[in-house]
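Need a sequence for this fold. Nothing fancy.
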């Protein structure tokens, strides 16, 4: 390093690099005392130009690595196999092999058994109810929850989340199933065309099969195929480490999407509460169409189903509220759903409600397991697009919940492994007549509050479901569908309560609130898939909008420190004559380049107008037009030029400029050229490495002019003060900006 570098002062760039405001009551002088090796007073006006301290940093020399050698080295590292690496790969893929041998039986077993038992009891009625939402038979919901609990026990890294059936995904599955049923020619009369026949003459299924597939059989074919594809997408995202996709699903977007989808779920279940036999509406505006059908057929309401629904609501809602209100005092929540299901089943069976009042019931639920069956490959082209949205929502909710509870309880989860886990929770069960699963917040909260310690509680949950599948399932034959609809609707309370949070959200971030409303309304009024797409696009547009018109301000120095803050936000800030410090809080790129220029010219002086005024004054002097009006204009022009020379330096604080594109670099060049033309130097301060590299590659300044880039605003102002003390204005590269 040069001798100049050895004698440099230690100037720490503590000038609000992140743009954080200093909280201070209005009108109170900001005092941030700090010892400094450099006294600012040394830059007071002198007859001589004093040397100014500079921060000098040497760059690391980058090794010129050949791309071919780099690729070969990576492949050798990743493709070589040895016993240690193989063991680590197996343990990484199956986390159960790591934590299960270390399981503390005395400490954890009681909490795991209790939480697993309670979640299993809650899952029985919910699995049956959500099967209707997915357009499937009740037994398939029980299969889904059983297999998901077992597989996540083996592959998951979160100790607390409950993976299983989830209402929003069931709704999305149900919409796809209904669409494919209509395309295949199934009507409401449960027609049973042959596997090789469809109404439009095209071939959808295996023509070599002689079996007859009824509506429920075809529905689960579609459901398992969508589930298989969603799992494949999730595993692929884990393999290629593209979990960053979830960052586009902000909390406001996800909350709005869930709330909007909850309205669709509520609408789809309303017909069961009234006992109406209506076709399920699909496509854009299905929510409005469904309500139109309900009101047109309101006279056909089944009184038995309506009374049953009201009674169940009167029991479930207050008990759920009590569970939530006294959750800190209750060792376990009251399993009111299971109590309602048992009571309603007994009442329906002994009261013969189906035979007497034609009340719709769940029907026969077989015991045991059906033979495994591969998904229907011919359906993949029809459902591949639907599976994309389902897979993204599934893994986004799972990863966010797992990270949230891991942070709360002081352990870590591997997001990539979570994607593998949820992906295989969909791929493997799709061969066993199951549909899509993910983590669910409500059941996860119950699991945590009842003492869950490890993933072993999932095995206990699976054993409860296995008992139901092997023994108890047929006893739910007389269970009314209206009861299942009520259970589904009551479980939407959490999503619908998000409206309570809107005032607080509005006070924190109006933009997030608008994103929430747009996503919620589009998900409810259009469709879930379109709503998700609209929400993502609108939130990205909001990000662009924020950078298009960012915050700009002139800065002043906090007395006794090297900190600079906004003159419009704080009082008692110091400014130096002839120097203005400008901050632009956004990346500088093609969208906001004009905003940057106009804001800078407005806050300082407009060099284009100054130069034009000079030219006009010069022409009139040459022509010697001694007219009163002309004289006044000359006086104005001369005065304008005189005022402009009082400003000799503009410092641009680049701490909040994350990146530059070619348009941004060109804008900075243009700004610098325009100001230098009227005798004002432009200095850039606190450029991050990315911005510095862009400036270097864009040839913003020559090598001998690199000292126009400063590591702190304070350093830039010190340079401007020192250069101003010379006769004229001292600028590197021999440029003189004197006012002569």
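Here you go.
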């Amino acid at each position: 390093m040069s001798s100049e570098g050895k004698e440099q002062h230690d100037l720490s760039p503590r000038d609000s690099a992140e743009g954080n405001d200093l909280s201070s009551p209005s009108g109170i002088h900001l005092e941030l005392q700090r010892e400094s090796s450099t006294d600012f007073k040394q830059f007071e006006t002198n007859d001589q130009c004093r040397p100014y301290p500079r921060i000098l940093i040497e760059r690391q020399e980058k090794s010129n690595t050949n791309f071919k050698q780099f690729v070969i080295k990576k492949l050798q590292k990743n493709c070589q196999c040895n016993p240690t690496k193989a063991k680590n790969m197996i343990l990484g893929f199956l986390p159960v092999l790591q934590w299960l041998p270390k399981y503390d039986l005395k400490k954890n077993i009681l909490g795991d058994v209790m939480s697993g038992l309670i979640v299993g009891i809650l899952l029985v009625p919910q699995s049956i109810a959500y099967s209707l939402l997915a357009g499937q038979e009740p037994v398939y919901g029980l299969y889904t929850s059983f297999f998901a609990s077992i597989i996540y026990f083996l592959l998951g890294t979160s100790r607390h989340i409950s993976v299983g059936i989830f209402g929003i995904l069931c709704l999305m599955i149900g919409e796809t199933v209904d669409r494919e049923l209509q395309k295949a020619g199934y009507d409401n009369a449960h027609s049973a065309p042959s596997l090789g026949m469809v109404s439009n003459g095209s071939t959808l299924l295996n023509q070599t099969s002689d079996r007859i597939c009824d509506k429920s059989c075809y529905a689960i074919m579609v459901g398992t195929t969508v589930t298989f594809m969603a799992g494949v997408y999730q595993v692929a995202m884990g393999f290629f480490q593209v979990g960053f996709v979830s960052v586009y699903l902000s909390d406001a977007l996800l909350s709005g999407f869930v709330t909007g989808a909850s309205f669709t779920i509520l609408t789809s279940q309303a017909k069961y509460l009234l006992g109406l036999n209506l076709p399920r509406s699909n496509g854009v505006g299905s929510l409005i169409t469904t309500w139109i059908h309900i009101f047109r057929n309101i006279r056909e309401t089944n009184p038995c189903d309506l009374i049953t629904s009201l009674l169940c609501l009167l029991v479930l809602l207050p008990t759920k509220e009590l569970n939530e209100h006294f959750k800190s005092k209750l060792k376990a929540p009251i399993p009111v759903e299971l109590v309602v299901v048992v009571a309603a089943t007994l009442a329906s069976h002994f009261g013969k409600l189906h035979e007497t009042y034609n009340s719709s019931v769940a029907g026969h639920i077989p015991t045991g397991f059906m033979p495994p069956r591969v998904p229907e490959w011919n359906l993949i082209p029809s459902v591949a697009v639907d599976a994309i949205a389902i897979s993204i929502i599934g893994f986004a909710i799972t990863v966010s919940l797992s990270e949230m509870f891991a942070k709360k309880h002081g352990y870590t989860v591997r997001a990539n492994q979570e994607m593998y886990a949820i992906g295989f929770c969909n791929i493997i069960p799709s061969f066993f007549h199951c549909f899509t699963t993910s983590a669910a917040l409500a059941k996860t909260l119950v699991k945590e509050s009842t003492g869950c310690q490890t993933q072993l509680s999932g095995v206990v949950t699976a054993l409860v479901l296995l008992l139901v599948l092997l023994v108890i399932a047929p006893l739910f034959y007389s269970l009314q569908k209206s009861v299942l609809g009520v259970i589904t609707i009551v479980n939407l309370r959490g999503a619908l309560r998000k409206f309570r949070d809107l005032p607080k959200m509005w006070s924190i971030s109006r933009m997030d609130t608008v994103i929430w409303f747009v996503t919620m309304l589009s998900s409810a009024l259009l469709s879930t898939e379109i709503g998700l797409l609209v929400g993502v696009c609108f939130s990205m547009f909001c990000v662009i909008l924020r950078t298009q018109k960012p915050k700009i301000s002139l800065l002043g120095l906090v007395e006794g420190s090297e900190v600079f803050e906004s003159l419009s936000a704080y009082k008692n800030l110091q400014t130096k004559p002839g120097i203005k410090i400008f901050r632009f809080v956004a990346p500088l790129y093609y969208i906001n380049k004009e905003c940057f220029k106009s804001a800078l010219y407005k806050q300082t002086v407009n060099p284009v107008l100054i130069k034009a005024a000079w030219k006009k004054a010069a022409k009139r002097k040459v022509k010697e037009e001694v007219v009163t009006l002309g004289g006044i204009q000359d006086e104005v022009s001369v005065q304008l030029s005189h005022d402009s020379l009082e400003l000799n330096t503009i410092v641009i604080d680049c701490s909040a400029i994350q990146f530059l594109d070619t348009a941004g670099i060109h804008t900075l060049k243009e700004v610098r050229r325009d100001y230098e033309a009227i005798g004002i130097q432009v200095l850039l301060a606190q450029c991050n490495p990315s911005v510095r590299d862009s400036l270097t590659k864009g040839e913003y300044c020559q090598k001998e002019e690199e000292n126009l880039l400063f590591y702190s605003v304070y350093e830039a102002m010190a340079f401007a003060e020192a250069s101003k003390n010379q006769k004229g204005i001292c600028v590197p590269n021999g440029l003189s900006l004197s006012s002569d």
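For context: Residues 552-619+645-728 form a domain with the Transcription Regulator spoIIAA fold (CATH 3.30.750.24).
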